[in-house]
Amino acid sequence: MNIHEYQAKELLAKFGVPVPAGFAAMSVEEAVEAAKKLPGPLYVVKAQIHAGGRGKGKFKELGPDAKGGVRLAKTFDEVEAAAKDMLGNTLVTVQTGDAGKQVNRLYVTDGVDIAKEFYLAVLVDRASGRVAMVASTEGGMDIEDVAHNSPEKIHTMDIDPATGFMPHHGRAVAKALGLTGDLAKQAQKTAAKLYEAFQGTDASQIEINPLAVTEDDKLMVLDAKVGFDSNAMFRHKDLMELRDETEEDPMELEASKHDLAYIKLDGDIGCMVNGAGLAMATMDIIKLNGMFPANFLDVGGGANKEKVTAAFKIILSDPAVKGILVNIFGGIMRCDIIADGIVAAAKEVNLSVPLVVRLEGTNVEKGKEILENSGLPIVSANDLGDAAQKIVAEVKQAA
């Protein structure tokens, strides 16, 4: 689960992380009132969407010469003009894709005089089973570009969750950023607070870019991206209230309501599979046969008829889907339950695209019998290779 920048900063401030003053705004009037609460004389108006690259982004409704989603303002009139440009319009960035995202919220924050910018992040390192703190002197830039062009400027410190953040970790961060004296002490304290926030909220990522040194030698978080482990949100009801469902893909949102692992992709063959590994293999073999998957969808090992029906509906709600491949290995899940769900969903939504089903495992013969007697044009496959070849052939024939 992701949250907006203003929410991230409010959250980090509770853990003692230094952030500039700022206020969220849902309207032009609120944006101006937010600026009036700040000391000035410089204000920053930021579009709030779940995507990076806002400053370099462009609004679809504005001309190509218009400024992006992060703007400086020196007067209340300039704040008002920026808010009018942004609210209700679609911001396209390198992370949104061509569709972009509509801006429904703004963040008006106090401007600061920047002397130097850094990058600092706390992430889960699944390879080591530890927490990774990543620091770089190249703040304000795309960290992917830094990693590609200047990897020596990225420093990673592993932190064992059993011992937690130690003083030597803080010193390592300060050294990686090239800070000394009081600024080094501020860096150590900020890094410790970020780790505390990371652990305390079950975060999966806290990214600070930039972490800035101001002209008066203060360390300040100017932008923050925070994501949480969705599996831990039952422990954080307060964080769940920060969720902005308008920022999420409607199909992925619907899938989450049924506890389905669904990710929308750009292909044209819908996939319904049980097990993440089998789902990945299914997508690979579709590509091997010359077409592309429209989604990743793992119904899990214990799905019932209702869950399968919901999964089927979600796949078919994607207008790009030209065919569906169901690939199920019935271990915990019985093949006859899957078959019942497929038949029920296909009848309910008036299936109009080719459907190929490969079943294997518990009650497989009963499952195949249900499909065969359904009266629906369902193509049965013997194995995964056969299934991929058949769905590609069916889609091409129907085209």
Automatic annotation (TrEMBL):
Sequence ranges assigned to domain ATP-grasp in this UniProt record: 9-248
GO biological process, one term: succinyl-CoA metabolic process
The protein's annotated pathway: Carbohydrate metabolism; tricarboxylic acid cycle; succinate from succinyl-CoA (ligase route): step 1/1; One-carbon metabolism; formaldehyde assimilation via serine pathway
Manner of cofactor binding, per the entry note: Binds 1 Mg(2+) ion per subunit.
Magnesium listed as a keyword: yes
Pfam families: ATP-grasp_2, Ligase_CoA
Ligand binding (Mg(2+)): 209, 223
Reactions that this protein is recorded to catalyse: succinate + ATP + CoA = succinyl-CoA + ADP + phosphate; GTP + succinate + CoA = succinyl-CoA + GDP + phosphate; (S)-malate + ATP + CoA = (S)-malyl-CoA + ADP + phosphate
One term of GO molecular function: succinate-CoA ligase (ADP-forming) activity
Cofactors required: Mg(2+)
NCBIfam families for this protein: PRK00696.1, sucCoAbeta
Family: Belongs to the succinate/malate CoA ligase beta subunit family.
Assembly notes: Heterotetramer of two alpha and two beta subunits.
Role of this protein: Succinyl-CoA synthetase functions in the citric acid cycle (TCA), coupling the hydrolysis of succinyl-CoA to the synthesis of either ATP or GTP and thus represents the only step of substrate-level phosphorylation in the TCA. The beta subunit provides nucleotide specificity of the enzyme and binds the substrate succinate, while the binding sites for coenzyme A and phosphate are found in the alpha subunit.
The protein's name in its UniProt record: Succinate--CoA ligase [ADP-forming] subunit beta
Species in which this protein is naturally found: Stakelama pacifica
